[in-house]
């Protein structure tokens, strides 16, 4: 009987998401490993992104780990070529899929094609979360906002081929 009461009592309070970050003071901004997954060794730590050609600095305004969802991310190869992507799933899961396509030698996709032709190792893939799209306060399509932010970063960092790893990008969805 006592155990049943404990279970009920535990369910009364507000439930917190298992991935909620709690801080005693304001958190650092930037991308950091979660220290609990296989992708942590590939994280580019810090709060700055450097443009590969101009050297311009971009500051990350969110705190992100490998568990972040609804995020725009950057993948960097050892040569400094960039790929910008977006995902609604956890970053660690998306990066794991990128690594899997490299291991399977799926040359139809841009990242594995570059890694195989340039003879890079899967372990050399580095990633960083650039931006997180939170739930809009007044409603709205969060996925559409995420895709717009991805398009912004693709343009801003010039990641379309030949300067980056993105072969093609269709903006018709926004017209």
From TrEMBL:
Transmembrane segments: none annotated. Residues 68-166 form the GIY-YIG domain. This is GIY-YIG domain-containing protein. It comes from Ranitomeya imitator (mimic poison frog).
């Amino acid at each position: 009987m006592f155990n049943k009461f404990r279970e009920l009592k535990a369910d009364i309070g507000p439930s917190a998401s298992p991935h909620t970050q709690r801080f005693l003071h304001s958190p650092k901004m930037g991308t950091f490993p979660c220290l609990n997954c296989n992708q942590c060794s590939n994280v580019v730590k810090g709060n700055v992104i450097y443009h590969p050609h101009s050297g311009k600095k971009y500051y990350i305004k969110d705190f992100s780990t490998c568990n972040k969802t609804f995020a725009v991310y950057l993948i960097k190869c050892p040569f400094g070529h960039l790929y910008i992507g977006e995902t609604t799933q956890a970053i660690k899961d998306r990066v794991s899929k990128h690594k899997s396509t490299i291991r399977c030698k799926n040359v139809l996709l841009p990242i594995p094609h570059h890694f195989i032709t340039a003879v890079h190792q899967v372990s050399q893939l580095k990633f960083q979360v650039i931006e997180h799209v939170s739930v809009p306060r007044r409603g709205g399509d969060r996925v559409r906002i995420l895709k717009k932010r991805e398009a912004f970063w693709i343009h801003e960092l010039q990641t379309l081929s030949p300067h980056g790893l993105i072969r093609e990008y269709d903006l018709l969805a926004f017209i």
